[in-house]
Amino acid sequence: MTEPDLAILITAANRCVADRLGEAVATAGGETMRPSFGFVLRAVAAEQPTVSRLAELLGITKQGASRLADDMVSLGYLERTGDPADRRRTHLRLSPTGERIRARALAESHAIEDELRQRFGDAQVQHVRALLTDFVQRHGGAEELAAQRSRAPDEPSPRRRNRPRAATASKPRTLVPKPPTESKPGRSTPSR
Fold this sequence. Notes:
Arc Repressor Mutant, subunit A; two-stranded antiparallel ribbon
């Protein structure tokens, strides 16, 4: 059997880690956790952002961040809190359930690393950490590492956000229809 190419190896390792984390957080009240929620939990734990700031941190639209926040609030993972300095602003923070889930995910992450250290030794694991850190930093991810968070895997990197998309088939986007606008006097609106 030939060795898998590096991209497949890293992607498969990421899937294995995501599976382990998913199983672990289910034991801490996160039975309905989706993979994207983990990115939100880390970002919210780091700074209790507004929805607009959450969108910046995750590299997604404000609408997408708002939808994620709404879902996570309704599931009991996040809470909204007012800003004492500006009553118009609302911040997000982890709920007690969100705190338990985050703690369980971190514990599982440490357990994965401990397993690797037992199997391959401290020097090997430190070497892999150094290689991955260097790779991520050279590809625009230094800020994410420093903040101990990452954007969702399907979002473009900071380097690619401003580049035009290739004319190849792309992942379909879900569009949210605009609400109907009120008709102005003298104008007719088509019936549906």
